[in-house]
Design brief:
It is built from 9 helices and 15 strands. By secondary structure, it is α/β, with parallel strands linked by helices. Helix 4 crosses helix 9. The protein binds beta-D-glucopyranose.
């Protein structure tokens, strides 16, 4: 039980919900049901940080006072500073979120792109575990997020959802939201995905594609319809991968900081 008091917490900030849970890094399991709070509107930094503090408080018994917090954001994050903001208030742009949350919570905080965190979650505890070489995870949701992992190391902020393909921003055609918006059948959607992955593999030459996001819960509907050279598999941690990956990244960063200050 003593060990339980220092579990890291992962928090996933999305356009509609902010979700968090403590994570057992030995197993990659959430140790409690995740808490979801509606994203405040407008989703300004102050408002979102308030919700983050609420989630941390809710798990205080498991997380302990020095445990690190990993947070994901749907945008580019460079050394804790948010550089783009998809589906959240534009006031986030250029905000040093890591510092903002650290000052508020007085804890070690790591802020990362949502797809990067999901990629790290799948790498350590999900579909990408044990795969060598270049693995590209894409999350198909409102937009398309991407995580590039080479030999187990993340190359952050790849933003492959914004490739221009056939004159379109890729995510406007191939995100899961496009399927819904345009009423596409799975066959029609798979055609969009085939074009997307064919283009992506022609500029990256990966060993494996991992598809995450909500659609990864229904791989039998479309995975076999995707035509590209690279093997394609579905993520196995679905919407938990971001929370798990963020917690893992926060714990790893805390260890490194500890070594530097020791
Ligand atoms: C953003 C990415 C994000 C993805 C998924 C894209 O529109 O540019 O940073 O990872 O959506 O949320």
């Amino acid at each position: 039980m003593a060990q339980q008091s220092s579990l890291p917490l992962g928090i996933d900030v999305g356009g509609s919900g902010i979700k968090g849970a403590p994570v057992d890094l030995a197993t990659g399991q959430l140790t409690a049901e995740r808490l979801r709070i509606e994203t405040p509107q407008p989703s300004t930094p102050e408002a979102v940080v308030g919700v983050i503090a609420q989630i941390v408080d809710a798990f205080a018994d498991q997380v302990g006072p020095t445990a690190p917090i990993g947070i994901t954001i749907p945008g580019v994050v460079m050394r804790g500073v948010v550089k783009t903001a998809a589906n959240i208030d534009k006031a986030w742009i250029d905000c040093d979120m890591e510092k903002l949350v650290e000052d508020r919570l007085q804890r070690d905080v790591v802020v990362v792109n949502d797809a990067d965190a999901a990629g790290v979650g799948e790498l350590h505890y999900g579909a990408a575990k044990g795969h060598e070489g270049l693995v590209i995870m894409t999350t198909l949701g409102t937009g398309i997020g991407s995580a590039v992992i080479h030999e187990g190391r993340l190359v952050p902020n790849s933003e492959y959802g914004h490739l221009e393909i056939d004159g379109h921003n890729a995510e406007s055609r191939a995100a899961a939201s496009a399927k819904k918006r345009e009423g596409l059948s799975w066959e029609q959607y798979a055609e969009r995905l085939s074009r997307y992955y064919q283009f992506l593999e022609s500029v990256t030459w990966p060993d494996l594609f991992v598809i995450g996001g909500g659609v990864s819960k229904k791989p039998e509907k479309f995975l076999h319809l995707i035509e590209c050279r690279t093997p394609v598999i579905a993520a196995t941690r679905a919407n938990e991968a971001g929370i798990i990956g963020a917690a893992r990244m926060a714990a790893d960063a805390q260890q490194v900081r500890g070594r530097h200050t020791a």
